[in-house]
TrEMBL record:
It comes from Rubellicoccus peritrichatus. It comes from the Bacteria. Pfam families: adh_short_C2. Residues 15-196 form the Ketoreductase domain. This is SDR family oxidoreductase. Transmembrane segments: none annotated. One of its GO terms (molecular function) is oxidoreductase activity, acting on the CH-OH group of donors, NAD or NADP as acceptor. Belongs to the short-chain dehydrogenases/reductases (SDR) family.
Amino acid sequence: MSKLDFQNAFSLKGETALITGGGSGLGLAMATSFCAAGAQVILVGRREQVVKNAATSLGPNAFAIAHDISECERASELMEKAEEVSGSKPSILVNNAGIHLKKLATETNPSEFEAVIQTHVIAAHSLVQAALPAMLEKQHGSILFMASMTSYIGMPKVVAYSAAKSAYVGMVRTLTSEVAEHGVRVNGIAPGWIQSPMLDQALGNDTVRRQKILSRTPMGKFGEPDDIGLAAVYLCSPAAKFVSGVVLPIDGGASIGF
């Protein structure tokens, strides 16, 4: 591969990425990396000022839309708004938005469980359904799901979250089997424990849980947000043109640690 080809292999120039939960945490980290790789990014979140501030910080190729993805009947409306603000239909969809619930299974009631599934799984499907037609028409696109260590290993007090993130693995595989031949790739990332507001919320002041995580992570440390951003760029770039149906752990070895 020539030097020029290598540089272009990781470029997202000409792509428009819609990132749910894009105003903070890992969503913003991915948006930052996507912008650096040349893409336009559309940050979607419920907190209007948060996504607006984040878009402003990223510059003229970033746009903000205040939207609640759990309102699944409005998924098509979101795609129309995305095209309106950016001038392009999304060619990359990142299903990143989610909510966390830390409770024992015996204390998690059906409505709480349903709320987690609604935000992570049902909403993500509605966005895929709304974004796919344009991708299939162009025979080009990339869909990325943010899975989790709980997709693969058992952890206490996250039964609803684990169920939702495990569902992402099945969605990645099924969607790939349906759309890969039409030029649309579907992959996932399973972040390990990455420094973020979500991690702080999950761990709180639980020192024992924090030490247990670090002790089973071969690298012995938490990851950084740009570890996820750079992996997302790879999976959505021409460098990964023959990669689909993969859920890539970015975890410092935690998923295979002892």
